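Archive maintenance. Older records in this collection stored only the sequence; we are now back-filling the structure field for every entry so that each record is complete. The fields below show one back-filled record exactly as it appears after the update. Entries are processed alphabetically, and Drug/metabolite transporter (DMT)-like permease is next in the queue.

ARCHIVE ENTRY
Title: Drug/metabolite transporter (DMT)-like permease
Organism field: Ilumatobacter fluminis
Length field: 288
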Amino acid sequence: MIDDRQRGWALAAFGMLMVSTDSLFIRAADFDAWTIAVVFGIASTVSLGTVAAVTTPEPLWRAARGAPGPLLLVAVLASTSQLAFTGAVNNTAVSNVVVIVAATPVLAAIFARIALGERTERQVIVAIVLVIAGIGLVVSGSLGEPTIDGDLLAVLAIVLFSMSVIVWRRHPELNRPLALAASSAAMAVIALPLASLGDAPWRVFVAAGAMGLVFNPIGRMSYSTAPKYAPAAEVALFAPVETVAATAWAWIFFSEAPSIRTVIGGLIVIGAVLFGTVGNRRTRARPA
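Back-filled structure field:
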Protein backbone atom coordinates (compact mmCIF):
# COMPACT_ATOMS: atom_id res chain seq x y z
CA MET A 1 0.00 0.00 0.00
CA ILE A 2 1.42 3.37 -0.99
CA ASP A 3 1.88 6.15 1.56
CA ASP A 4 0.80 9.76 1.14
CA ARG A 5 4.11 10.92 -0.32
CA GLN A 6 4.10 8.18 -2.94
CA ARG A 7 0.49 9.04 -3.75
CA GLY A 8 1.59 12.60 -4.37
CA TRP A 9 4.39 11.43 -6.64
CA ALA A 10 2.01 9.21 -8.62
CA LEU A 11 -0.50 12.04 -9.07
CA ALA A 12 2.26 14.43 -10.17
CA ALA A 13 3.73 11.96 -12.67
CA PHE A 14 0.34 11.07 -14.17
CA GLY A 15 -0.68 14.73 -14.27
CA MET A 16 2.43 15.79 -16.16
CA LEU A 17 2.07 12.88 -18.58
CA MET A 18 -1.44 14.07 -19.45
CA VAL A 19 -0.37 17.72 -19.65
CA SER A 20 2.49 16.75 -21.97
CA THR A 21 -0.10 16.24 -24.72
CA ASP A 22 -0.82 20.00 -24.73
CA SER A 23 2.01 20.69 -27.17
CA LEU A 24 0.71 17.92 -29.44
CA PHE A 25 -2.81 19.38 -29.57
CA ILE A 26 -1.56 22.95 -29.99
CA ARG A 27 0.59 21.95 -32.94
CA ALA A 28 -2.28 19.89 -34.40
CA ALA A 29 -4.55 22.95 -34.18
CA ASP A 30 -1.93 24.94 -36.12
CA PHE A 31 -3.55 28.34 -35.61
CA ASP A 32 -2.93 31.50 -33.61
CA ALA A 33 -2.43 31.13 -29.87
CA TRP A 34 -5.32 33.44 -28.91
CA THR A 35 -7.95 31.44 -30.79
CA ILE A 36 -6.62 28.15 -29.43
CA ALA A 37 -6.69 29.63 -25.92
CA VAL A 38 -10.34 30.68 -26.26
CA VAL A 39 -11.51 27.27 -27.51
CA PHE A 40 -9.41 25.45 -24.94
CA GLY A 41 -10.51 27.82 -22.16
CA ILE A 42 -14.21 27.39 -22.89
CA ALA A 43 -13.90 23.60 -23.16
CA SER A 44 -11.92 23.23 -19.94
CA THR A 45 -14.25 25.63 -18.10
CA VAL A 46 -17.16 23.38 -19.03
CA SER A 47 -15.27 20.22 -18.07
CA LEU A 48 -13.82 21.47 -14.78
CA GLY A 49 -16.96 23.43 -13.88
CA THR A 50 -19.00 20.24 -14.23
CA VAL A 51 -16.58 18.36 -11.97
CA ALA A 52 -16.73 21.19 -9.43
CA ALA A 53 -20.55 21.23 -9.45
CA VAL A 54 -20.79 17.46 -9.02
CA THR A 55 -18.13 17.08 -6.32
CA THR A 56 -18.78 20.20 -4.21
CA PRO A 57 -21.48 19.61 -1.55
CA GLU A 58 -22.26 23.31 -1.20
CA PRO A 59 -23.16 25.91 -3.85
CA LEU A 60 -20.14 26.95 -5.91
CA TRP A 61 -20.50 30.62 -5.00
CA ARG A 62 -20.28 29.71 -1.33
CA ALA A 63 -17.21 27.53 -1.95
CA ALA A 64 -15.60 30.43 -3.78
CA ARG A 65 -16.29 32.78 -0.88
CA GLY A 66 -14.54 30.37 1.48
CA ALA A 67 -11.10 31.18 0.06
CA PRO A 68 -11.45 34.05 -2.44
CA GLY A 69 -7.83 35.22 -2.26
CA PRO A 70 -6.10 31.89 -3.06
CA LEU A 71 -8.76 31.05 -5.65
CA LEU A 72 -8.22 34.35 -7.46
CA LEU A 73 -4.45 33.98 -7.26
CA VAL A 74 -4.55 30.48 -8.76
CA ALA A 75 -6.90 31.70 -11.49
CA VAL A 76 -4.49 34.48 -12.47
CA LEU A 77 -1.35 32.35 -12.28
CA ALA A 78 -2.78 29.31 -14.07
CA SER A 79 -4.50 31.28 -16.85
CA THR A 80 -1.48 33.45 -17.70
CA SER A 81 0.84 30.45 -17.45
CA GLN A 82 -1.29 28.49 -19.92
CA LEU A 83 -1.46 31.47 -22.29
CA ALA A 84 2.31 31.86 -22.15
CA PHE A 85 2.80 28.12 -22.75
CA THR A 86 0.43 28.16 -25.75
CA GLY A 87 2.23 31.16 -27.21
CA ALA A 88 5.60 29.49 -26.61
CA VAL A 89 4.64 26.31 -28.46
CA ASN A 90 3.40 28.43 -31.37
CA ASN A 91 6.62 30.45 -31.55
CA THR A 92 9.48 28.03 -30.95
CA ALA A 93 10.35 24.35 -31.14
CA VAL A 94 8.39 22.08 -28.80
CA SER A 95 11.68 20.61 -27.61
CA ASN A 96 12.87 24.07 -26.53
CA VAL A 97 9.65 24.70 -24.59
CA VAL A 98 9.62 21.42 -22.72
CA VAL A 99 13.31 21.59 -21.85
CA ILE A 100 12.70 24.99 -20.29
CA VAL A 101 9.67 23.53 -18.48
CA ALA A 102 12.03 20.99 -16.90
CA ALA A 103 13.43 23.79 -14.73
CA THR A 104 10.17 23.94 -12.75
CA PRO A 105 11.43 21.92 -9.74
CA VAL A 106 14.28 24.32 -9.04
CA LEU A 107 12.04 27.36 -9.36
CA ALA A 108 9.51 25.72 -7.05
CA ALA A 109 12.27 25.20 -4.49
CA ILE A 110 13.15 28.90 -4.66
CA PHE A 111 9.54 30.01 -4.27
CA ALA A 112 8.97 27.47 -1.49
CA ARG A 113 11.84 29.05 0.41
CA ILE A 114 10.38 32.53 -0.04
CA ALA A 115 6.71 31.75 0.56
CA LEU A 116 6.79 28.72 2.83
CA GLY A 117 10.06 29.26 4.66
CA GLU A 118 11.63 26.04 3.36
CA ARG A 119 15.42 26.26 3.57
CA THR A 120 17.32 26.07 0.29
CA GLU A 121 20.21 23.68 0.78
CA ARG A 122 23.64 23.92 -0.84
CA GLN A 123 22.95 21.05 -3.23
CA VAL A 124 19.77 22.79 -4.45
CA ILE A 125 21.73 26.02 -5.02
CA VAL A 126 24.20 24.08 -7.19
CA ALA A 127 21.24 22.63 -9.09
CA ILE A 128 19.85 26.14 -9.66
CA VAL A 129 23.14 27.26 -11.21
CA LEU A 130 23.21 24.20 -13.48
CA VAL A 131 19.60 24.69 -14.53
CA ILE A 132 20.29 28.31 -15.46
CA ALA A 133 23.25 27.10 -17.54
CA GLY A 134 21.07 24.49 -19.28
CA ILE A 135 18.32 26.99 -20.08
CA GLY A 136 20.95 29.46 -21.30
CA LEU A 137 22.27 26.84 -23.70
CA VAL A 138 18.79 26.14 -25.09
CA VAL A 139 17.85 29.81 -25.46
CA SER A 140 21.25 30.82 -26.89
CA GLY A 141 20.42 29.00 -30.10
CA SER A 142 17.45 31.32 -30.57
CA LEU A 143 19.28 34.61 -30.03
CA GLY A 144 18.75 36.86 -33.02
CA GLU A 145 15.97 34.61 -34.32
CA PRO A 146 12.16 34.91 -34.07
CA THR A 147 12.03 31.87 -31.78
CA ILE A 148 13.55 33.83 -28.90
CA ASP A 149 10.05 35.16 -28.19
CA GLY A 150 8.78 31.61 -27.77
CA ASP A 151 11.64 30.68 -25.45
CA LEU A 152 11.01 33.72 -23.25
CA LEU A 153 7.29 32.91 -23.13
CA ALA A 154 8.22 29.41 -21.97
CA VAL A 155 10.36 30.89 -19.18
CA LEU A 156 7.42 33.09 -18.13
CA ALA A 157 5.12 30.06 -18.17
CA ILE A 158 7.30 28.04 -15.80
CA VAL A 159 7.75 30.97 -13.41
CA LEU A 160 3.98 31.37 -13.09
CA PHE A 161 3.41 27.61 -12.96
CA SER A 162 5.97 27.21 -10.17
CA MET A 163 4.22 29.93 -8.18
CA SER A 164 0.91 28.11 -8.56
CA VAL A 165 2.45 24.91 -7.12
CA ILE A 166 3.31 26.89 -3.97
CA VAL A 167 -0.26 28.18 -3.69
CA TRP A 168 -1.64 24.65 -3.99
CA ARG A 169 0.79 23.47 -1.31
CA ARG A 170 -0.02 26.32 1.05
CA HIS A 171 -3.80 25.94 0.65
CA PRO A 172 -4.65 22.20 0.60
CA GLU A 173 -8.27 23.07 1.39
CA LEU A 174 -8.69 24.99 -1.87
CA ASN A 175 -11.36 23.55 -4.18
CA ARG A 176 -9.22 22.24 -7.05
CA PRO A 177 -11.76 21.92 -9.88
CA LEU A 178 -13.39 25.25 -9.02
CA ALA A 179 -10.07 27.12 -8.99
CA LEU A 180 -8.97 25.49 -12.25
CA ALA A 181 -12.33 26.23 -13.87
CA ALA A 182 -11.93 29.88 -12.84
CA SER A 183 -8.46 29.97 -14.41
CA SER A 184 -9.79 28.50 -17.66
CA ALA A 185 -12.62 31.03 -17.78
CA ALA A 186 -10.17 33.87 -17.12
CA MET A 187 -7.93 32.65 -19.95
CA ALA A 188 -10.84 32.54 -22.41
CA VAL A 189 -11.94 36.05 -21.47
CA ILE A 190 -8.41 37.46 -21.79
CA ALA A 191 -7.82 35.84 -25.18
CA LEU A 192 -11.26 36.49 -26.72
CA PRO A 193 -10.64 40.07 -27.99
CA LEU A 194 -7.58 38.90 -29.93
CA ALA A 195 -9.03 35.61 -31.22
CA SER A 196 -10.17 34.87 -34.77
CA LEU A 197 -12.90 32.34 -34.16
CA GLY A 198 -14.67 33.11 -37.43
CA ASP A 199 -11.58 32.24 -39.45
CA ALA A 200 -10.60 29.17 -37.46
CA PRO A 201 -10.69 25.83 -39.36
CA TRP A 202 -12.40 22.80 -37.87
CA ARG A 203 -9.12 21.29 -36.66
CA VAL A 204 -8.78 24.12 -34.10
CA PHE A 205 -12.09 23.22 -32.45
CA VAL A 206 -11.34 19.48 -32.53
CA ALA A 207 -7.77 19.69 -31.20
CA ALA A 208 -8.22 22.51 -28.68
CA GLY A 209 -11.60 21.12 -27.65
CA ALA A 210 -10.16 17.68 -26.94
CA MET A 211 -7.30 19.25 -25.01
CA GLY A 212 -9.70 21.32 -22.93
CA LEU A 213 -12.43 18.76 -22.33
CA VAL A 214 -10.34 15.73 -21.40
CA PHE A 215 -6.57 15.63 -21.35
CA ASN A 216 -5.52 18.94 -19.81
CA PRO A 217 -8.23 19.00 -17.07
CA ILE A 218 -7.34 15.48 -15.96
CA GLY A 219 -3.67 16.38 -15.91
CA ARG A 220 -4.16 19.65 -14.03
CA MET A 221 -6.52 18.07 -11.51
CA SER A 222 -4.00 15.31 -10.79
CA TYR A 223 -1.04 17.65 -10.56
CA SER A 224 -2.80 20.27 -8.43
CA THR A 225 -3.90 17.55 -5.99
CA ALA A 226 -0.37 16.15 -5.62
CA PRO A 227 0.85 18.94 -3.25
CA LYS A 228 -1.73 17.76 -0.71
CA TYR A 229 0.41 14.68 -0.19
CA ALA A 230 4.01 15.59 -1.06
CA PRO A 231 6.23 18.67 -0.64
CA ALA A 232 6.17 21.27 -3.41
CA ALA A 233 9.76 20.62 -4.55
CA GLU A 234 9.10 16.87 -4.84
CA VAL A 235 5.87 17.42 -6.78
CA ALA A 236 7.65 19.82 -9.13
CA LEU A 237 10.34 17.17 -9.65
CA PHE A 238 7.95 15.42 -12.04
CA ALA A 239 7.84 18.34 -14.50
CA PRO A 240 10.55 16.56 -16.57
CA VAL A 241 7.95 13.86 -17.33
CA GLU A 242 6.43 16.46 -19.63
CA THR A 243 9.85 17.22 -21.10
CA VAL A 244 10.49 13.63 -22.13
CA ALA A 245 6.93 12.84 -23.24
CA ALA A 246 6.28 16.08 -25.17
CA THR A 247 9.59 15.81 -27.01
CA ALA A 248 8.63 12.26 -27.96
CA TRP A 249 5.18 13.40 -29.17
CA ALA A 250 6.76 16.12 -31.36
CA TRP A 251 9.28 13.66 -32.77
CA ILE A 252 6.70 10.92 -33.44
CA PHE A 253 3.84 13.02 -34.84
CA PHE A 254 5.61 16.03 -36.38
CA SER A 255 9.11 14.68 -37.15
CA GLU A 256 10.48 17.56 -35.06
CA ALA A 257 13.77 16.13 -33.89
CA PRO A 258 15.41 18.21 -31.14
CA SER A 259 18.70 19.95 -31.97
CA ILE A 260 21.94 18.82 -30.38
CA ARG A 261 22.03 22.07 -28.42
CA THR A 262 18.55 21.41 -27.04
CA VAL A 263 19.39 17.79 -26.16
CA ILE A 264 22.54 18.84 -24.29
CA GLY A 265 20.71 21.68 -22.53
CA GLY A 266 17.90 19.31 -21.63
CA LEU A 267 20.28 16.74 -20.19
CA ILE A 268 21.90 19.46 -18.08
CA VAL A 269 18.52 20.66 -16.81
CA ILE A 270 17.18 17.19 -16.03
CA GLY A 271 20.44 16.12 -14.43
CA ALA A 272 20.46 19.26 -12.29
CA VAL A 273 16.87 18.69 -11.24
CA LEU A 274 17.59 15.12 -10.19
CA PHE A 275 20.74 16.24 -8.38
CA GLY A 276 18.86 18.94 -6.46
CA THR A 277 15.85 16.82 -5.53
CA VAL A 278 16.24 13.04 -5.54
CA GLY A 279 20.00 13.22 -4.94
CA ASN A 280 19.51 15.72 -2.14
CA ARG A 281 16.94 13.50 -0.40
CA ARG A 282 19.33 10.55 -0.55
CA THR A 283 22.10 12.69 0.96
CA ARG A 284 19.85 13.70 3.83
CA ALA A 285 18.74 10.10 4.39
CA ARG A 286 22.31 8.75 4.52
CA PRO A 287 23.36 7.94 8.10
CA ALA A 288 26.08 10.10 9.60
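Update note: The chain has a mean pLDDT of 82. DSSP finds 15 helices and no strands in the chain.
Entry marked complete.
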